[in-house]
Amino acid sequence: MSDYFFGLTPDRVLQAVERADLRPTGHCTPLMCLENRVYDVRLEDGVHVVVKFYRPGRWSREAILEEHGFLADLQAADIPVCVPRPLAGGETLLAIGDIHYAIWPRTGGRTRDELDDEAIAVLGRLLARIHNVGATRGAAARPELDADNRVLEPLRVLEDGFLPPSCIRRYAASAREIASLYAERSAAVPRHRIHGDCHVGNLLLSDAGWCFLDFDDFVTGPAAQDVWMLLPGRDREGQRQRAVLLDAYRQFREFDDRWLELVELLRGMRFVWYAAWIARRFQDPAFPDAFPHFGSESYWDRETRDLEEQLERVMGGDASAEEGPTGAVAEAPPELTNKDFFWDL
Question: What pTM value is reported for the model?
């Protein structure tokens, strides 16, 4: 990991903006973000831009440009997304050493903790249109959401010194069974470019309507991934809301109800992927503060029980079991809340 990335200072951020042939005033404010480093910068013409420095080693230049290309495709289809600002020569991606960065327009709006049926229907139609565009071309440099890169490879990370002896066999057995079931049940399900991290924190609502943010995690995968992350509830109300979403989605794109069989598997896969994401990043000074209980015996005991219960739910075929009114995703430490504006995790 680049010391430069951990040591980004306002001076270095402003130098990067100047290298893009823009003239900053000196105003530079960090925005909430764990995975990358993101700053609000004011230019001399009064315009604010957002400068995003991509974490070194995570994505290749080609993979980041595919993110920008997907966003350009969506913008061309009049879908509300935030697209990186073209720089000199039409480029959207620059680099300082091994750090790639892009400059984005600052997007106004607010997040919504809860969605009413009218909002859900609008988002369902927009999500279908995103998937229509996503299916028009491939993404060779981006990963596929599959059992290997979402469960088996993250599991290898966790087995290498993170999982304690008291949990490792049980955790690994549950993870491998979830991977096997997903590989089997997803074999015939269509895959295409999807958002990949489509939770409500990556949506903004303004007077102009909804805007989808942060395609940093976009992958090739099943439509069900974006559907369940947008409305993750398992209780009766969550199931009703998902039906509202899919009724609206089907106005623009087919969605086979059988694809919903993947939802609880995808949720279980995210348990493993999320824990491995924290493990990979724990040398980043921001992570121990954000996840103070990560790695403790109690943490892994809870993670193991959650994963075993998730596998039991999948094996029992009861994806509609009530689990409380909020429908929150049952992942280790809580994610950042929507009280703060953030671009990605």
Answer: 0.90
